[in-house]
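[#protein-structures] MJ: dropping Metal-dependent carboxypeptidase here for a structure pass
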Amino acid sequence: MSKATESYAALMAHERISQALVQVAGRLGWDQETVMPRGAADQRAEETGAMESVLHARRTDPGIGEWLADLETADLTNVQSANLRHISRSYTRANRVPADLAQRLATLTSRAQGQWADAREANDFAAFVPVLSEVVALKREEGAALADGGDVYDALLDDYEPGATGADLSAMFASLRPALVDLRARALEAAAPAPLTGTFDAGKQMKLARSIAKTFGYDFKRGRIDKAVHPFSSGGGADVRITTRTQEDDPLNCLYSTIHEVGHACYEQNIDAAYALTPLGQGVSMGVHESQSRIYENQLGRSRAFTEYLYGQMRDSFGDFGCASAEDFYRAVNRLNQGYIRTEADEVQYNLHVMLRFDLERALIAGTLAVADLEEAWNTRFEADFGYPVDQASNGCLQDVHWSVGLFGYFATYSLGNVYAGCLNEALCAAVPDLDAQLRGGDLGPATEWLAQNLQRHGGLMPPREVITQAAGAAPNEAPLLAYLEAKFSDIYHL
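AK: finished. structure tokens for Metal-dependent carboxypeptidase:
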């Protein structure tokens, strides 16, 4: 056995254990969000910090540098080269962050998550300011260490979308915003579709949500659905869990949150099993991940064809629920809503919610916006963008968990995922010309199989833009998304 072969085997054995521990850490987070008793928050913070300490030590192990050096001139396969690309990047980044800072961040953000939940429930942003200020300070410190003289926000963004920059995303958003604002204004001036009204049993919602999850290809032998305040997907490979939520006056919240998280989960479940517990065995970026959740939820799940099928499922579950026809249901599902919550926003307005957060978090990290002034800045920007004031903190700057757990740089990937989804949908429609007929019958197989084969199975094999370009047949840009939205909502609102 050559020295290079021995070094690669040793490196991958080390990485396999690290990846397994990452999965364990993720399970701690899932437990905290779903079933952990509230009184366990402080202990869980210590547990999370301890796990991060172990992982940081493994990620900065000098042996990794030695193995990588041994492999610099080795003749490697595409899979081996991709593994080394990820490991080398992780090793460089981990060594720039002091171990005590990594542990302090993990401990603090676990504690902050509980305090965010309490502040959100009490609609009291002031109560959250002290701990969020600590989080922002540590994230600035981490970002400065990662940036190594470069842009601090870009260094944090790179955790979620490798290769992206704040400047590039800002330019993309500048192209999106005028068209979205114009489309929204025209739609809101037109006659609005009737909303869904009534009361829908939470138990029946969950039963239907599980059925729809199966329809979209979610494998319950390797997953489960639970409830959480903020729906999310967690895990990978053989254990991919999702959460949703129920509101008795809004079953669409539950159903479409479920479909959204199923998109994330199916990406993880459909990655080539040979990549399990390696750097390739997970979604390559949050933007690509979001492209899967958004195309499942919107281009497929909110299409006229699929909502015709879902209309029948709704009637089977709830009887006559007040919608006279499948067309009325389609229009209700896609109705523009003047609400506050990002996760409940329609396709036209969703990206405006993201842009608000993107601009504010860049300012927080740059130090041009103080945490104490965040609520006022949020409320001012929201009213300017949406035309009405925020009524309470839980509908404003306390609605998302992300900043409490230190996910600065994450929000932008939601809109990037929408852009990617627009490109993928264009290619999918060309590849599966009878897609609508299949969706109308509740057959998601051809659509989800196309996504599995052209994107999901690759996991981390290719860089984010490359995997989208290969699947879509062209470099990603915002034009397909804007064309899709203009056509869809001009039809619904008779513009």
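MJ: nice. The beta strands are 225-227, 233-236, 239-244.
AK: one more thing. The longest strand covers residues 239-244.
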